[in-house]
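User: For my dataset I need records formatted as: sequence, then structure tokens, nothing else. Please produce one.
Assistant:
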Amino acid sequence: MILRRMAQTLVLAAGLLSVGGAALAVEEGQQAPDFTLPDIAEGKPPITLSALRGKTVYVDFWASWCAPCLRSMPLINELYARYREQGFEVIAINVDDPIEDGREFLLDTPLDYLIAADTKGEMLGAYAVRGMPTSFLIDRDGVVRMVHMGFRDNDIVLIEDAVRSLLDAPTP
């Protein structure tokens, strides 16, 4: 188990190194790269970011071996419950390989929002994720308005403030 986690970390690090420098990173003010990924649950339709255009979307990259990811997800679930009626959506992108590790976590911690699987790391690379967790808050027009890396318990206040700000913004 420990060796597998170390190998996963090394694979993630290698993938991140292959992405290149900061110039490739998705930054605030840029259009979020679109994606279509399989749902982590078998038999559900794929998840596409552009299908949520017109909503405020929180895209969160996570892995079952990432302790801060696992602490943040239930708190993000609470935000989702509070704001989904106002047009807030969450897509958590699991990067575990094998995907069963992510599914196992979800058995103990059921979440209400969308959870996609990126076992090949394609979106990890497209978003130039350098650490776990990394999240992107995307406005109604598909523009990244906040990039957040890591997670401490009081970060949820900053995230909620940013979400509320986008939800309260006038619709064009």
